[in-house]
Amino acid sequence: MTTAAPSPVTSASTAQPALHALNLSRVYPSGEGQVQALAPFTHTFPPGLTAVVGPSGSGKSTLLNLLAGFDQPTTGQVLIGDTNLTLLDESARADFRLKHYGFVFQNHNLVSILTALENVEFPLTLAGLPPRERMARARELLALVGLEARGRHFPAQLSGGEAQRVAIARALAGDPGILLADEPTGNLDSKTGELVLSQLQTIARQGRTVVLITHDRDIAALADHHLQVRDGVVGVVD
Ligand SMILES: Nc1ncnc2c1ncn2[C@@H]1O[C@H](COP(=O)(O)OP(=O)(O)OP(=O)(O)O)[C@@H](O)[C@H]1O
């Protein structure tokens, strides 16, 4: 008996590599001295939704930037499956990110002159997918975030929550195993924020590793796993 392959939209199609932070730390120069933005920290981010909370300036974005390979650690490594992200040069890191990571930020950063559908299609165009395939996939992704009826709307015609859900659909275009979200609900009222969070939960339940930075404790409470950052020290909250 043959089993149909799972749709790439409903489950992350690539084998799910674990995301490991190994003795990861970051020290920044500050005036004459230094600031330890992140103290050495070892953790495996499991598939599912991990919320990272902590006060302003505690080191959350530093952690996310290191996990993404946007910034290089002072000590330690980021391992994704067999790949040591920290040892890759900048262009190889960018390449790896394109294939394995999706990003959602506080501002949805949608292109204002493109429709919702075209915004989701955009990374697929860059990836060289033929027009028919990329439109079909963009439609599936919009449906995944419950916005199949909004494909022709421009960002200015969408609510903040809808625009953020389009941004989530766009982040999933490359079928990444890892989704990093920095305050994606920061500009939304609490009800809309919970709706966006529920989309992230759906994505996480498909086997992806989703890391969510948030100031909002109610939003964080809905995650599967919890980390707290204080003065650069990361702790697991049970
Ligand atoms: N490029 C940099 N150079 C020097 N110091 C930095 C740099 N980036 C961050 N820092 C410092 O590192 C510490 C952690 O900053 P980080 O941005 O990670 O905090 P955060 O928890 O994300 O804050 P927020 O919630 O306000 O975004 C802060 O003291 C910050 O001033």
TrEMBL record:
Q: Which GO terms describe its molecular function?
A: ATP binding; ATP hydrolysis activity; transmembrane transporter activity
Cellular-component GO terms for this entry: membrane protein complex; plasma membrane
Q: Which InterPro entries match?
A: AAA+_ATPase, ABC_transporter-like_ATP-bd, ABC_transporter-like_CS, ABC_transpr_LolD-like, MacB-like_ATP-bd, P-loop_NTPase
Q: Known PROSITE patterns for this protein? A: ABC_TRANSPORTER_1, ABC_TRANSPORTER_2
A Pfam match: ABC_tran
Looking at the record, the residues that make up the ABC transporter domain are: 19-237
This protein's UniProt keywords: ATP-binding, Nucleotide-binding, Transport
Could you name the domain of life of the organism this protein comes from?
A: Bacteria
What is this protein identified as?
ABC transporter
